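Researcher: I need the complex structure. Ligand is S-adenosylmethionine. Inputs:
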Amino acid sequence: MPESKTNDEVEFLQWALPHLKYRWAGFRKPRGQVIKRIRQRIRELSLEGIRDYKTYLRNHPEEWHILDQMCDITISRFFRDRELWKYLKNNLLPEMLKARQDNQIRIWSVGCCNGEEPYSMALLVEEVRETASEPINISILASDRNPHALSRSRTGRYPGGALKEVPSGIKKKHFRPDPDHPNHYLITGEVKDRVVFEYRDISKSLPEDMYDLICCRNLVYTYFSCERQEEFTVKIATLLHPGGFLILGAHENLPATEHFVPENQSLGIYRKK
Ligand SMILES: C[S@@+](CC[C@H](N)C(=O)[O-])C[C@H]1O[C@@H](n2cnc3c(N)ncnc32)[C@H](O)[C@@H]1O
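Model: Output:
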């Protein structure tokens, strides 16, 4: 690909992303995924290149919606940010169980991608459950606006590489090789059934329930504009019980807010006041 073409595509993204209330800084690293989809779209529309696509967008405002969908960065992995999961298991889950008299904990994974994050949570809960003295009741809601990611989540099939960070004992207990897809694994039924997946575009609506823990990693606080981040932070605070936790990605920061205090900032964990 000639260098000038790449520059044009980058310039296009730097121009288009703020229109969609995204931050270029968040997309700089994974921009290849978006550019690949735009090239495919340009071929579908039989356009010459990115400059034509810019003109097309100006003349067809409905295309902005399609471009927005092409901006979904669908990268995730099981137990992403290993230290976070240790802290969850040893500190947050025991504290939450102690605080909730009925042992009923509600967790929401926002932008769950292919299910790696909520299933990691379910696997962790299984570990805690095995050693708990009392029965524990943890429900996990996982949502995304990308229908392909949701469908992959529901299938629960993953290439071996996606399981690299899954501890070997957990892999042995809760995954089995898929006989129909070489080098792929299926998550077992009892873990799968603990996660409820739903379609939800968080720009349009939020759930009505209250949660003890919300995982919002590598979405709002990486890709959304600062203004959208601030708006979202106020809204998400209303969905957490006092003392509940909001977890961000390891490299993300919460905008200045009166609703949260850091619990462990280096792990991206904040506590609702
Ligand atoms: C980079 S993945 C993050 C996955 C996981 N949370 C993690 O940290 O590994 C971002 C996900 O957010 C989803 N997403 C993007 N915009 C969204 C929106 N407005 N509403 C819901 N999901 C969205 C994308 O489809 C994608 O699956």
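Model: Summary of the prediction. Residues 72-76, 80, 111, 113, 117, 144-146, 149, 200-203, 217-219, 249 surround S-adenosylmethionine (CB under 6 Å).
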